[in-house]
Amino acid sequence: MNSGILTIDDISSKNTPAIVDYLKENGIRALMFAEGSRVERFWDEAVYALKNGMIVGNHSYSHPAFSSISAEEGIREIEKNETVLNRLYEAAGVERKYRPFRFPYGDKGGANKEILQKYLKEHGFFKVPDGRIPYSFWKENGLDTDIDTLWTYDFEEYRVRPDSGFTIDDVFAKMRDPAPRYGASLFGEDHFHFLLMHAHDETEEMVPEYWRKMIGSLLDNGFVFVEPV
């Protein structure tokens, strides 16, 4: 059986409620990583996600590459978004039980990685349980001890843009690829994934309901979505 946790980056967006509705219809609870500046822009959409059972985690305030800024600046990015997310949970009337964090671009801060990991650990950030991930690269790269939430499979649908040369067909080709360039293959013998998708209105304009197409394909192929916590 192939299974895993669905994570969605860069909320919120205009299409966030439609994604949430589809997930609810299919009994899928996603872990959504919020960029604070986007939450402020699409506030009601983020509230909707919380009220409808999704978990919203911290994805920094302005989505910088953490290796390009100082550790102090990185911590300010995290804390500024914490302020936004605390207000968001309060507005939604939802208890904030979990505080997962994901670095933008998966960039863990370069030379500042240890400082940032120590900060996350000491300030109550939540490590999403990853004991079922079977891939050797996960432990070899210390991802089993890092507090932040990386991913094992990236759909890369964010690359679908005008004149990019990358289409939704390429997304599906990668989904069928037994040996993708990065991460593990989507399907195999008892694969378990932290899946990465994005809530981007720009992708929606190119491929309406791209999220339905991708997740629907997984469901059609027997993929089982499990609770993030």
Give your account of this protein's structure.
With 229 residues, this protein is of the alpha/beta class. 38% of the residues lie in helices and 12% in strands. Strand 4, helix 7 and strand 5 form a beta-alpha-beta unit. Helix 3 packs across helix 4. The longest helix has 22 residues. It is globular, with a radius of gyration of 17 Å. It starts with a strand and ends with a strand. The relative contact order is 0.20.
Number of strands: 6
Helix content: 25-40%
Major sheet description: 6 strands, parallel
SSE sequence, one letter per element: EHEHHEHHHEHEHHE
| Protein structure class | alpha/beta
Short description:
This protein has 229 residues and is α/β, with parallel strands linked by helices. It has nine helices and six strands, in the order E-H-E-H-H-E-H-H-H-E-H-E-H-H-E. Helix content is 38%, strand content 12%.
List the helices and strands and how they pair.
Blueprint: E1 3-11, H1 16-25, E2 31-34, H2 36-41, H3 43-51, E3 55-58, H4 71-92, H5 113-122, H6 136-140, E4 153-154, H7 168-176, E5 192-198, H8 201-206, H9 210-220, E6 224-225
Parallel strand pairs: 1-2, 1-5, 1-6, 2-3, 4-5
Helix pairs in contact: 3-4
